[in-house]
Amino acid sequence: MARFEPNHSSLDYNTLKDAVVVVSGGASGIGAAIVRLLHGHGAKIVFGDLDTAKAEAVVASTSPSSVHFVMTDVTSYTDIVDLFRFALSKYGRVDHAIANAGLIEQPGWFDPRLGIEGVAHKPTTKTSEVNFNGVLYFANIACTYLAHKNQAAEKNSKSLTLLSSVAGFKETPGLFVYQGSKHAVMGLLRALRLYVPEAYPGIRINAVLPSMTLTGMVEGIKDGWMSADLPVNKPEDVATALVGLCVAGPGTDPIWYDEEEAEGVKKMSSAGGMDWDHPLETGVNGRGIFIMGGNCYDIEEGLDRTEELWLGKKVSGWLQKG
C-alpha cells in the first residue's frame, strides 16, 4: 500500500520559515504539538481555541512574537472568519491551514435506556457541530484566504489539511456521532481534492486519520487499546504528519509503496480522477493519511486502485463513465 514518509529527504522544512499557518484547536493535544513543531521550523502561527489558559501556556512556551492565539469557537462561522482575518491583517497572507479542532462522542444517542419519554428530548449535536460543521466552515474560509494574492499558484505550495480519524473509515461501535462526523470529513476531502486545485490554483488538500493518540480525548478508552498491546500515537507523531503534508509540494517524493503488505496494487489503474502515478508534478494531494504507531499509511490510493475488486468490474466501469 501507499505510505507517506514525513521525514523524507525531498521535503524541505526550511520553506516553513516565516510561512503563515492557521490552525484550529491549537491549545492542547495534537493541536499544541502542531503549533510547537511549526514554531520550531520558524513559521508564523495563528491558532484558535476555546481554552484560554492552555492557549496562553502554548504561546508562552513558544514565542509571543510569532505565535498568536485568537479565541475561536469552530461552530461559529464568524469566529473562524475572525481567525483568518487576524492572520491576514498581521502578515498579509496565509500559506497553510490545518483544521484540527475536534470533540469526542457526547452521551445521549442510541441509548436503549431512554424509553419513549426520554427519546423525545433531542441529544446534543455538539460533536457533529465541531467535527464536521467546524471543518466545513474552516475549509471554505481557508480556501479563499489561501488563494488571496497567491503569487505561487503554479507551485502548489499552499495547503489545506483536515483532521479525520481511524473512525473515518473503520467501524467504532458506540461512537455514533463521532464516527459519522469523521466519515463526513473524508467525504469532504473527496469532494474537494479535484475541485480545489482547479478552483483555487496552487492549493493542495489532504486529510489525516490518526488511530489511538495519547491526548486528553482518549482518557476513557485508552486502557483497553493499550492492554491489547496495539500501537499508539503520540501527539507529536500526528503533528509530524500534518506538518509534513504542508511541505509536500511538487518535486517532493515522500510517497512510497509497501509491496509486502499489498503486492501488485500499485500496478492497478486508477478508477477515479486522481493521478496517483505523477505525484512529483502535483505534490501530495487528495490523500487520506492513516497514522498508527507513528507510521503513515495512505488509504485513498489503494481504495481507488482496487475499486474493481470490491465493487465489481462492470459497476466500476459504469461509474468511471458517469
TrEMBL record:
<dbReference type="Pfam" id="PF00106">
    <property type="entry name" value="adh_short"/>
</dbReference>
<dbReference type="InterPro" id="IPR036291">
    <property type="entry name" value="NAD(P)-bd_dom_sf"/>
</dbReference>
<dbReference type="InterPro" id="IPR002347">
    <property type="entry name" value="SDR_fam"/>
</dbReference>
<dbReference type="GO" id="GO:0016491">
    <property type="term" value="F:oxidoreductase activity"/>
</dbReference>
<keyword id="KW-0560">Oxidoreductase</keyword>
<protein>
    <submittedName>
        <fullName>3-oxoacyl-[acyl-carrier protein] reductase</fullName>
    </submittedName>
</protein>
<comment type="similarity">
    <text>Belongs to the short-chain dehydrogenases/reductases (SDR) family.</text>
</comment>
